[in-house]
Amino acid sequence: MKLAIYALSMALVLVSCGTSVSQNTSDKTVVEFVKKDIPENQLLSFGLLKQDNADWLLKDYNAEINGDTVEIFIPYLAHFNLKPQFSVAKKARVYANGAELVSGKSEVDFSKPVQFAVVAKGSTHTYIVSVFNSGLPVIYIDTKNAQPIKSKKIWLDSTKMIVYKSNGTVDYDAGTSMVQIKGRGNSTWSVKAKRPYALKLKRKAKLLDMPEGKQWCLLANFFDPSFFRNELANYLGRNYTNLDWTPHGQHVELVLNGVHVGNYYLCEKVKAQKGRVPG
User: Fold this and answer.
1) H or E element at residue 44
2) Residues near 81 by Cβ (< 8 Å), separated by ≥ 6?
3) CB neighbours of 220 closer than 8 A, spacing ≥ 6?
4) If pLDDT is split at 50, 70 and 90, which confidence band does 36 have?
5) In this structure, what is the dihedral angle of CA atoms 141, 144, 148, 152, given to the nearest 10 degrees?
6) How far is it, in rounded angstroms, from Cα 7 to Cα 15?
7) Suppose 129 and one of 46, 70, 91, 215 were both cysteines; which one would form an S-S bond, judging by CB atoms 3.0 to 4.6 Å apart?
8) Which residues pair with 278 in a beta bridge?
9) What is the per-residue pLDDT across 190-223, written as a single tens digit (0 to 9) for each?
10) How far apart are CA 97 and CA 117, in angstroms?
């Protein structure tokens, strides 16, 4: 009798919560939870896939949808016109900037947060979609035939290099003149996980608003988890000492031969010449 009363009370509670209850012949109550219908104007999934954005993405990125907020972080992103992949209910439609979107085909400018409207049965649900990078400039370097950089003495010729500002605009493009690259450093060169590099341009150029130069360094900062020591030392040298010259530098994201290798410090090469270390 007590079991029957308990089963009846559980059934009333669960039915009121949007579940269904069934009872089998062995007097054991079997509760079958049935999900409430998901609104048809909901965004079910959202992502940016390499197959749709092969020139700019190195892998797939799937967003976690939190309420009305959708965010994707791509540290090395330098191009914000991308084709998103998304899923909604069968009869729902998705709009952004006044135009209907087709998953995996429509291009959207993600340089600032975008409102995605999911419309179904006359009802609209608006999501704010943000795609952002680390806030640092991005350098893309490709050696000829993706040749690995193994030497500190031998320069690799015919190396492509493009420098993007954090907003995606091009700061420097070596173009057909190409650049040269090789390894550098002493103890830091021994760290194969993240090596420093030396760059030589064909002609002097300003990089990221730094004074023009022909030779530059990409410091890996592997032994500095803060990535801040070199920048702090250079800042103090320029602003609080009487040194004749202190290198300028800028933190960047480096993509080398199609691999995002992380945060590097692009800086002027220290050498004796006019305008740098007095000879």
Assistant:
1) strand 43-48
2) 107, 108, 109, 110
3) 185, 188, 191, 194, 195, 196, 262, 264
4) low
5) -80
6) 12
7) 70
8) none
9) 898 999 999 999 999 999 999 999 999 999 999 8
10) 9
For residues 230, 56, 129 and 43, what is the CA-based torsion angle, rounded to 10 degrees?
Answer: -140
What is residue 51's DSSP assignment? G
Place of tokens 């035939």: 145
Residue 34's pLDDT is: 37
Computed over every residue of the chain, the mean pLDDT equals 88
Residues 6+ away with beta carbon under 8 Å from 5: none
The three-point CA angle 53-54-60 to 5° equals: 70
Half-sphere exposure (Cβ direction) of 211: Cα atoms closer than 13 Å: 9
Dmax (CA) for the chain in angstroms is 101
Residue 25: what pLDDT? 42
Stated pTM of the model: 0.82
The pLDDT assigned to 29 comes to 41
